[in-house]
Amino acid sequence: MRRLHYGWFICIGCTLLMFCTGGLTTSAFTLYQSHLVDAGLTDSQASTMLMVRSLFALFAMLVVEKYHKKTDIRIGVTVAIAAVAGSFVLYAFSKSFLSYCVSAALSGIGYGLGGMIPVSVLISRWFHTHKALALGICAAGTGASTIVAPPLLTSVILNHSLKTAFLVEAAFVGLVTVLVFLVLRNRPADRNLAPLGADEPEEIPGASEAAEIETAEAEEQAVDSAASPPAPSIGVNKTAFLLMGAAIFLIGALTNPGWVHLEILYESEGFKEMTVAYMLMFAGIVLTCGKMLYGQINDKLGAYKSNYLFFGFILLGEALCCFAGKAGLPGGLVAMGCLGLGLPLSTVGLSVYAADVSTPDTYGRMVKRFQITYMVGALVFGSIPGRMKEFTGTYTSFYVLMTVFAGLAMLCIQFSYIRYINKKKTA
């Protein structure tokens, strides 16, 4: 029997990492919004706290390559996930808006230093083939968190307290921190191995091409300033890059504050807490499957055709959220399912887009720039849901805006493909 390559254990470790840094701190954190308001925060403060998290995640992303160059990835992500565990301890003992913001800042740092950027690099080091599959599995860790966390932690909150829920989460992340340190290795050479499939031909273009990250030598070149404007020689027309950047900025608003406020949206429209928790669990199941499905569909159809399908899901999901109080449970479940299917555009999709607007020499840099652009969108719109609720009296007004954003994001990306990228590929 052929021995399982250690690269798949790296994949498992990265999935656990994403479950905590990219899932519990962001995707699954939606379950806390209404409880934070019940604990004494205003709607604006609860949203602003998320903006603080995005701000510090952005700062962390600006230095993530230099950070991991100093620590190498194994130590670097272990510290990052430990910061997430610490943030939940701080959440548990927070009594004021300021203390909640400090907790959010620490979780943002953990997310920025331990998210998709180091995971993508690790997968590129360990996988010569099956990169898209491995990257999709890792990205699915964020969706898996929304399967497990909402019903479990909502039950803990209702039967015990908000503080207990945060401490349970801190203990779990602490355990994962130990596991991640024990499992991850920086490079195949650390275990006297070659990357998986190193003796096989490279995979066909598609999502696997999008998942391709530079090896150690290319990472060294990618350490230059992430905040500086992109070089003109990114592989396609500069206008295509700007259009795609605008779309990713909007996606940051759609899939960060838009997702995180789903719980408080439906509870404010009359849904019971545990009902919403199970709705979020359903969304998490769909999201987890959707991230792996996206890679497979993108392999067969390419990014341009896939965009119509997955942006269509987001558009329908956001539109249904506008009628949260009228569509009932069936409408809510359809909305959650559609959003779960569309959200892979914000994770695996960013790697696909980066591949299509960069050259092999600039791809690693472009992944980081798109991640940063995404976080800027999340940052700018982080406090808007609470402010719009206080101004209009309902969270549905924010989802009307998100429906418009979904349409604009699709138009920007598809125009860049039609006008520039597809022409370049066929030239």
Account of the protein in words:
The longest helix is centred in the N-terminal third of the chain and has 50 residues, at 43-92. The chain has helices at residues 7-24, 33-38, 43-92, 97-113, 116-126, 131-159, 162-183, 207-210, 216-221, 238-255, 257-260, 262-268, 273-301, 303-321, 324-342, 348-356, 363-380, 384-392, 396-426. It contains 19 helices and no strands. Residues 201-234 have low confidence and may be disordered. By secondary structure, the chain is mainly alpha-helical. The chain is globular and about 60 Å long. The termini are far apart.
Write the layout of secondary structure elements.
Elements: H1 7-24, H2 33-38, H3 43-92, H4 97-113, H5 116-126, H6 131-159, H7 162-183, H8 207-210, H9 216-221, H10 238-255, H11 257-260, H12 262-268, H13 273-301, H14 303-321, H15 324-342, H16 348-356, H17 363-380, H18 384-392, H19 396-426
